[in-house]
Amino acid sequence: MNQQTAATPELASPTTIVFPEGIPGFEHLKTYRLTYSDTEGGRIYRLRPEDDPEIEFTLVDPQFYALNYVLALDDTEQSLLQAEHPEEILVLLMLWKDTEGTAGGLHANIAGPILINVAKGLGMQKIIGNPRMELSISNA
């Protein structure tokens, strides 16, 4: 299944998302609550594990960074997400804060997008070596 980030599936907030394999580095945490808030800059998502409220991940749509992913899911990933069609998958980027570098600010993990089947409440982090993306430029 090929997935291009174009349409965003509708999402109720809060939504429970199960990551059957966990998120790399947090494999022991499987069930998360996904919420969002709309800001002037776009929709900001928050992913918090139900078993550890001290942890919270901030996520954004790749279009927030003018990126449009072209992803191919293998049979295992497609089965894990129980997705039949690309439009069922919400693609999000996990943000991280550079506290030691001189660049400062928030950065997106473009090599590890979070994929969520909103209808089924299933998620995974797809680690990709060479992300294939298209740059979207707005004339606004």
From TrEMBL:
It is found in: Cytoplasm. Pfam families: FliW. Keywords: Bacterial flagellum biogenesis, Cell projection, Chaperone, Cilium, Cytoplasm, Flagellum, Translation regulation. InterPro entries: Flagellar_assembly_factor_FliW (IPR003775), Flagellar_assmbl_FliW_dom_sf (IPR024046). GO terms for biological process: bacterial-type flagellum assembly; regulation of translation. One of its GO terms (cellular component) is cytoplasm. Its main location: cytoplasm. HAMAP family: FliW. Interacts with translational regulator CsrA and flagellin(s). Acts as an anti-CsrA protein, binds CsrA and prevents it from repressing translation of its target genes, one of which is flagellin. Binds to flagellin and participates in the assembly of the flagellum. Belongs to the FliW family. This is Flagellar assembly factor FliW.
